Amino acid sequence: MKxxxxxxxxxxxxxxxxxxxxxxxxxxxxxxxxxAVRRLFTRCAALxxxxxxxxxxxxxxxxxxRKGRRVRYLLRAAMLELPGTWARITVAVDAAGITVQRxxxxxxxxxxxxxxx
Length: 117
Fold this sequence. Notes:
Distance between the termini: 22 Å
Helix content: 25-40%
Mean pLDDT: 85
Oligomer: single chain
Largest sheet: 7 strands, mixed
Radius of gyration: 14 Å
Order of helices and strands: EEEHHEEEE
Structural class: alpha/beta
């Protein structure tokens, strides 16, 4: 799926083997998580802007600066229309685009710091 923000564009891929972790009381399939992430990227301009800007910076960089990065976003699960309080999305951003690696639904706010949206 191609995502665009202003004059920048990059490829968003959500593989079938994306890791999906949910609390024991949630009975959700992994394809529900993949669908929710795809909808989030189409609706959330801040997330699209951050990911496409990082991908473009990697695309025009040279040397070691072209190395891909792993970024984690922490946001309210309601933005994904999923149960739970918090959702943590791990994405790999490289010059080619964005690959969603993991989606975790959390009941409590984790102690670690992440990019919050």
